[in-house]
Automatic annotation (TrEMBL):
Pfam families tied to this protein: AAA_28
NadR/Ttd14 AAA domain boundaries: 15-196
Domain of life per record: Eukaryota
GO BP term, example: photoreceptor cell maintenance
Cross-referenced Gene3D superfamilies: Hypothetical Protein Pfu-838710-001, P-loop containing nucleotide triphosphate hydrolases
Gene Ontology molecular function: GTP binding; phosphatidic acid binding; phosphatidylinositol binding
InterPro entries: CYTH-like_dom_sf, NadR/Ttd14_AAA_dom, P-loop_NTPase, TRPL-trafficking_regulator
Protein's name in the database: NadR/Ttd14 AAA domain-containing protein
Organism this protein belongs to: Chironomus riparius
């Protein structure tokens, strides 16, 4: 039995953080999400917001000295970690698939603390952001505050611990989103639709990450887009960003219509590990099943590496622009000549036309959209053989062109020095 077989046979435990600015719809969204997954037969645990639990006991920040405030934040974070761990342990013993919805996560604390105090807190407790942000949770969903784009609906009346005005709510909304920049699966749900559709988009993005077919229960509008970018880049033009080193290895598979790969992603010597399987869906859509790995699992699976592919090295830059989360992949050496100078920008969005154009980063030179173009597929980019001489080039997982039992590339373009 392959190591991956055990991973896929186990029941699923999915740790989700539902965060956002004041009056963003977290409470209603959490209730709707819980009902949706319970109807699918999942066990759902809802981790309460630790800050609300503690503050409802009579604590007022204005009454605390600076030292008391700092110590309270440390203890709040430790309490949050312990409460979450209690639910995480329960989920491990559950025989059903289990969704854990965390009302905010540990990185949200950094939005309410000065940077120097946050660094002091991490150093004093041996915390690092790869473990706290990337490895602790499977997905982060940020519900944008009504103060940012739906001001007429902003209210603090129904929340006993909330008193922020619109301007402060906007500021806190951005800070809470910025705290999660860098998580590999971070989704921002803005106010571009009415509230009911906003909640549906939130549920939809969770189902997409879990490869759950929702049929016609939700309007599927969000899709992954990819754009070709040309240099040079200037760091000073970027908003707040996080850079990561990323390494991809493709693994051997039993058939041409299944792709599996390993990903190692890290900062400052701390790493997270993911196993991904891509296969065509029965309705013609490719789905990805992602499984978080330990370092030991990752090293064991490297023995299955496919020698037909180069290892892919990237620098991945993550940032927020106009309430949109972007990842810029900058291909690094060593690489095939076709990857030299290549930069690809990715985002998930439901926007189209002029609305989409206005949401893209103006400081980047975006050459064109390349979504779905096989010449920009990482699977094809990593192939060792020349594309004109290989049978492994993948045009599509579901629309393969077959002739005498052989797969042939269709509309294939050669990519040299980042240009098609």
């Amino acid at each position: 039995m392959k190591p991956t077989d055990n991973l896929m046979d186990q029941h699923r435990v999915y740790k989700l953080v539902l965060t956002g600015g004041p009056c963003g719809g977290k409470t209603t969204g959490q209730t709707r999400l819980c009902t949706f997954f319970e109807n699918l037969g999942w066990k759902v645990y809802r981790v309460p917001e630790t800050a609300s639990v503690l503050l409802s006991g009579g604590i007022k920040f204005n009454d605390l000295t600076p030292d008391e405030s700092y110590n309270f934040q440390v203890n709040l974070l430790k309490t949050m970690i312990q409460i979450e761990n209690t639910y995480f342990e329960l989920a491990k013993s559950c025989r059903r698939n289990c969704l854990i919805i965390c009302d905010r996560g540990v990185m949200d604390a950094s939005a309410y603390i000065d940077t120097d105090k946050w660094e002091r807190m991490k150093n004093a407790n041996g915390w690092n952001e790869i473990e706290m942000r990337d490895n602790r949770y499977n997905q982060i969903v940020h519900m944008v505050s009504a103060a940012n784009g739906a001001e007429e609906f902003y209210s603090t009346e129904d929340h006993s611990c909330r008193s922020e005005g619109v301007d402060l709510a906007r500021e806190l909304d951005y800070k809470s989103a910025a705290a999660w920049i860098g998580h590999p699966y971070f989704d921002v749900i803005d106010n571009s639709t009415d509230f009911d559709a906003k909640v549906n988009r939130m549920i939809e993005c969770v189902c997409q990450k879990l490869s759950i077919d929702t049929g016609d229960r939700l309007l599927r509008t969000s899709r992954k887009l990819k754009f070709l970018v040309s240099g040079p880049l200037s760091d000073i033009q970027f908003p707040s960003f996080q850079d990561f080193n990323v390494v991809h290895h493709y693994l051997q598979t039993s058939g041409q219509r299944v792709q599996t790969r390993l990903r190692k992603r890290g900062q400052n010597g701390h790493w997270s590990y993911i196993h991904t399987t891509r296969r065509p869906h029965v309705h013609g859509q490719s789905i990805e099943v992602k499984t978080q790995l330990t370092q030991r699992d990752y090293l064991n699976m490297l023995a299955q590496k496919d020698d037909a592919h180069f290892t892919i090295f990237k620098k991945r830059r993550c940032f927020l622009v106009n309430n949109q989360y972007f990842q810029l992949d900058i291909y690094q050496e060593p690489s095939h000549p076709r990857c030299r100078g290549l930069m690809l920008l990715e985002t998930y969005t439901s926007l189209e036309g002029d609305y989409l154009k206005r949401s893209l980063p103006k400081f980047l030179n975006i050459v064109k959209e390349v979504t779905g173009e096989p010449s920009y597929s990482m699977y094809n980019l990593s192939l060792k053989e020349d594309w004109n001489n290989t049978k492994k080039f993948c045009y599509s997982l579901h629309d393969l062109i077959i002739d005498d039992g052989q797969k042939h590339p269709a509309n294939m373009k050669m990519l040299v020095n980042g240009k098609a």
